[in-house]
Write a structure and sequence with these properties.
By secondary structure, this protein is mainly beta. The protein has a domain of 182 residues: Methylamine Dehydrogenase, Chain H (7 Propeller). The strands form eight sheets. The protein has a six-stranded antiparallel sheet with strand order 1-4-7-6-5-37, with no helix packed on it. Strands 2-3-11-10-9-8 form a six-stranded antiparallel sheet, with no helix packed on it. The radius of gyration is 21 Å and the shape is globular. The two termini are 40 Å apart.
Amino acid sequence: MKKLLLSMAAVVAVGGVSWWGYDRYWDREYSALEHYAVVKSADVAELAMIDIRVDELAGKIRLPVHPDYMAISASMSRIVYANRENQTLTIMDIQDSDDIVIDLPIVPDALNIAPNGFEASVVNQDDKTIVSISLSDAEILDVIEGVENPLSMSYSDDSEYLFVPNGDTQEVQVVSAIMGSIMDPIELSMENGSNSAAYSLMTRTPNGLYGILVDQNTGRMPMVNFTNWNQVDTLPVGSEPQRPYITADGRFVVVANTGNATTTVISTEHFETVGTLPGVNSLAGISTGFFETLAFLASDSENKAVVLDLESMESYGEVDLGGTPSAPVGDADGRRIYVTIQETGDVVVFDTFSRTITARIKNVISNPEQISMAKTNNYCH
């Protein structure tokens, strides 16, 4: 039976935060958020809910505004999404009719959830601004201005700092998420004497000791040691490297080099290259599974995925996805990897044990562009 929430006036409005019960429709009762993969459309104001216990479409939730950016807080079991037109951030509980809507002081260009799941940040690139938000208290904590290239921000392992690489100055800007202030930057040096860099976002190791990023201009990977906040090494990778991916167990760094369709695999034991394997010409994203020994690289220009064995450092071959994939996401036990297909609206389910597609959930949503989970094997970097 369909449930309908009728539009109501805000009953609480404090500091730009409103508790609303507004036109959100869903076609069934939902259980805990951890049981679902959530699929966002590029053009429809709704979310598709995939029940990952049975790999079937459970239903759809129609939203009052389009979720331009979406993330999931596993700690709070909430879906969080931002809307550019209304300049709002919504905190949604699929088991409760009370959504929390926060009015933002900027037009959001991106949304990031902190590793602890209790804070989030939205950024505006042109305004050079980061807005820090408490999800648990539903309030804006700080508005941090003067940050160059805030779209490249990422969180520290303990959620206390934001790291923002700047290729023009060859440094990583450091923002205190607690104080809401810009700190002294971490200086980077490229060994070939380059005057500028095209840095990726920084990826932290699971133990929180290192931060790594790549320079697309030089094909090298600077490493920062967070015990002394200094660059400690620079490793060669490949041509036009993409943001480093680290396996959830922290053993390997996987770098897709789209300039020459190779994949560089680096062991974190001594931070040395242990394999150069086949790759892709463009990267939608990377996921891992099968006890973190399998890497799945989805290509959004080749309609395929390359599957790699991180133990033998060999390729398992390619998987035809049948259309343009989104960034893949793995389930909590590393058994299955989920990826959406733009043209058909399908969700493809890849089994990491058999290394085959075991399900294709048809016509889930129009023009899907993102799939996310509350509990995932993907290391949240």
